[in-house]
Design brief:
Length: 150
């Protein structure tokens, strides 16, 4: 899934009346960057599209359902970028979906010029979503693991 084109949103806005704004915002809420729930909708919709359940994603990412739910809904905010990456891996997100999640959460996207990010990108591109396998690759390269273990 590629990032949603801004041109599509411009076309949808063309010709709508002021009274149609609430409907436009509701129909396009997952694509709007200023929407505080955009991260939640992106995560929820992507996970559901893959036939997974959020509770299983939390478990696979190594967080409690309660804490994971608060992170996803942004009731609690984390500065731990690795947690968002682990949630994306657990949700079997492709690179575009992962980078969108990071961006919506206010974090930097995976960047190929950073060795650690490059390893994670390669894992995602090869459909390796198991955190232990990704951690093993990072450890083998002398890089900090996603789990935070040494």
């Amino acid at each position: 899934m590629e990032e949603f084109p801004t041109a599509v949103l411009f076309k949808r806005l063309d010709g709508i009346k002021m009274e149609d704004i609430p409907q436009y915002l509701e129909e396009n809420r997952t694509e709007l960057k200023d929407d505080s729930k955009a991260f939640y909708y992106h995560m929820k919709n992507t996970v559901e599209k893959k036939g997974l359940f959020l509770k299983d994603v939390y478990l696979s990412a190594g967080v409690s359902e309660s804490y994971g739910g608060k992170i996803i809904t942004m009731e609690k905010h984390t500065k731990n970028r690795d947690l968002i990456i682990r949630l994306c891996l657990a949700g079997r997100f492709n690179l575009t979906e992962t980078n969108r999640a990071l961006k919506l959460y206010g974090m930097s996207e995976l960047y190929p010029k950073i060795s650690r990010d490059a390893c994670i990108i390669v894992a995602i591109n090869n459909h390796i979503f198991d955190q232990l396998s990704v951690d093993e690759c990072l450890r083998a390269e002398g890089l900090r693991m996603l789990s935070g273990a040494e």
